[in-house]
Design brief:
heterodimer, A: 4 strands, B: 469 residues, mainly beta, Rossmann fold, 2 domains, seven-stranded mixed sheet, 31 strands
Chain lengths: 176, 469
């Protein structure tokens, strides 16, 4: 019973991601922070006003607006922005155009299958690739900071291709 | 400007949690270490020149060494041992036994299964008794509490078959440093029997890890080469990574996220204070000392491009050594300071390169398939240890010309080799698949003698310091 619910949630999560990013991992456990949001088939458009929802300037508001586009994913040892990443960054740029006073950080991450120091440098490269793309879309560079966590902060904890694909990422985080 | 400081404050908060908003992660500084004073000690006769040194490892691998408890002239109280100098003599012999056993080189027998020699037998061994026990080498020693509260340790190595003294040395230490006398004695025995340089009297800096895989706490920690005298140097509110002891043990270079970004700090062990390696807003990583301790190599990421820089250990202007697009990191000096081995992905994947210390004449040396990362030049100069990535991650060695590849380990993920002071043993850390648990290991250059180092919690990024003065 319980297991069926979990599988259903998992499948919903997979389809939600598959719709957004062709590179996303095949098996995607729901992120711990927003378990219900992953079940939505398509992210809702940015709400202009919502009396009881998350406030503008919070990470919840940003993720509520852009959904899975808050994070982009990379191939092993790569840092290029492909078409799926570009679409996600487009969604982010629309949000940050609309809320032009917000500043945010792009966190670059790597999977565990790299040496520690190299991964700090690679995460920095990934965060900068995302930043440069957003700047090319018209976001002022001074609004964006970058930080690399290398392989030190995984979100998927298994040691397999699916988990590593989830961890090779650049996540945008709104600073309030 | 104000916004910037708000940003930094916010980042610090996010990392440290609300309870630890101060911009520091440092614990109590270490007390200054004492000195080991060498002392001429009495023996049965003057020693002649050393006889032929054993260099073929097969000859001494199975050498039986008897290490009975060290004797004492008077069993008196000492701050070094609650049960007095006689008990201390037993502990000194235990430390030496563990040192010699743990490196797989000898067959030592410790004090718990051997008769204890009398004080006057230390310079006049009971030969027939020891040869009857099958011991080939015999270690004798004594512990004496001096009137100035210092402890004198005498260390003697005898060849039982020859019925002759091979070498002796005496040490004067503060009671708190008694283990150092045991390590110096171990070094004397090891060096005399193998012909290699010593390494036991040395320390290791590393990263202590606790907590679940997605919220790992990583603290800077230090310990003696045998795991004793363990201390945490940071509190764990900020992630600490990749320490390196300075050649004189006065400072530690390491990466900390204490201000929210990865930056290299120079931590002064005596004062407990730390400074940035360079006053720059860009992330810095992968610090290394020059062999003379006067220069620091580090890498800095500017707009995603990472290059190697060098700066005087006293501060001042940094000099950029690599300019190629890509990630150039992990520079490690040759022992004479004239060359630097480093890793770069300029060819498309991590490979190892050598350049002159001023950055000129950069050339790739790794051409054997797989990737080459975290190169570390041996203190002897003849080998470069590195992380070889070919499916799994393993510790390997090659010559500075990139020849003679030898893979020493076979874990799922073994990385970040660091050399023993004598260039004969390598430590590294091993990560377990799925759990992410990490531990320190060491292996000799044959690859046959591999063992896990005991640490209080999980451990990574070992950095072996030089032999202590």
């Amino acid at each position: 019973m319980n297991k069926t619910v979990k599988i259903a949630l998992l499948l919903a999560g997979v389809s939600a991601v598959a719709a957004c990013s062709k590179k996303a991992p095949e098996v995607l456990p729901p992120p711990p922070a927003e378990p219900t949001r992953t079940a939505e088939a398509t992210p809702p458009p940015p709400p202009a006003t919502r009396p009881t929802g998350p406030q503008v300037g919070s990470q919840e508001h940003f993720v509520g607006a852009v959904g899975n586009s808050a994070t982009i994913y990379f191939d092993t040892d790569r840092f290029n922005i492909d078409s799926a990443d570009a679409a996600a960054l487009q969604a982010q740029s629309q949000y940050f155009m609309q809320y032009s006073s917000l500043t945010f950080t792009i966190e670059g991450h790597c999977d565990e299958r790299g040496t520690r120091e190299y991964n700090v440098a690679l995460g920095e490269r990934r965060a900068n690739a995302a930043k440069n793309y957003l700047v090319s879309l018209g976001i002022d560079a001074s609004r964006i900071t970058t930080v690399s966590y290398g392989k030190e902060r995984p979100v998927a904890l298994a040691s397999n291709q699916a988990a590593w694909a989830q961890n090779r990422r650049a996540a945008s985080v709104v600073i309030n | 400007m104000k916004t910037l400081s708000y940003l930094i404050a916010a980042l610090t908060l996010a990392l440290a949690g609300p309870a630890l908003a101060q911009n520091t992660d440092l614990g109590e500084p270490l007390a200054e270490g004492g000195q080991v004073e060498e002392l001429a000690i009495e023996g049965e006769e003057e020693l002649g020149p050393l006889r032929g040194t054993v260099t073929d490892e097969s000859d001494w691998r199975d050498l039986g060494v008897a290490i009975p408890a060290f004797a004492t002239d008077r069993d008196v109280p000492t701050p070094a041992n609650a049960n007095g100098t006689a008990a201390l003599g037993r502990e000194v012999a235990n430390v030496i036994t563990a040192n010699l056993r743990n490196n797989g080189l000898f067959k030592p027998t410790g004090p718990n299964s051997l008769p204890r020699p009398a004080y006057d037998q230390i310079t006049d061994p009971n030969w027939s008794g020891w040869s009857g026990r099958g011991a080939e080498m015999l270690v004798h020693g004594y512990v004496r509490a001096r009137s100035d509260d210092r402890i004198v340790v005498g260390c003697y190595l005898y060849d039982v078959a020859l019925q002759d003294e091979l070498i002796r040395e005496g040490y004067v230490v503060r009671p708190a440093d008694w283990r150092r006398a045991a390590h110096k004695c171990s070094d004397l025995i090891y060096a005399r029997l193998t012909g290699e340089d010593p390494f036991f009297d040395s320390r290791i800096a590393y990263i202590a890890e606790t907590g679940p895989k997605d919220a790992r706490v990583k603290r800077l920690a230090v310990m003696d080469s045998d795991g004793a005298n363990h201390r945490f140097l940071t509190l764990g509110s900020a992630t600490a990574l990749t320490p390196r002891y300075s050649p004189d043990y006065s400072k530690i270079l390491y990466l900390s996220y204490v201000d929210g970004n990865p930056r290299i700090y120079v931590y002064d062990i005596g004062s407990g204070k730390q400074t940035l390696v360079t006053e720059n807003s860009s992330p810095t990583l992968a610090p290394r000392w020059s062999p003379d301790g006067k220069t620091i190599l580090y890498s800095m990421s500017v707009a995603g491009n990472t290059d190697i820089y060098r700066v005087s250990a006293n501060g001042g202007r940094s000099e950029r050594l690599t300019v190629t697009p890509g990630i150039d990191i992990a520079g490690s000096y040759s022992p004479d300071g004239s060359k630097i081995v480093f890793e770069s992905d300029r060819s498309g994947a991590q490979q190892c390169y050598v350049m002159d210390a001023d950055g000129s004449d950069q050339r790739r040396i790794s051409f054997f398939g797989g990737r080459c990362a975290t190169p570390e030049w041996s203190p002897r100069g003849d080998q470069i240890a590195f992380t070889r990535i070919a499916g799994d991650f393993n510790v390997a060695v090659m010559t500075p010309a990139g020849r003679g590849l030898k893979i020493l380990t076979s874990g799922w993920q073994d990385e970040a080799p660091t050399w023993a002071p004598n260039g004969r043993i390598i430590q590294f850390f091993r990560t377990t698949r799925n759990s992410g648990r990490s531990s320190l290991w060491q292996v000799d250059l044959t690859g046959r003698n591999e063992r896990r180092l005991p640490t209080p919690v999980d451990a990574s990024d070992p950095a072996w310091g030089p032999i202590r003065p």
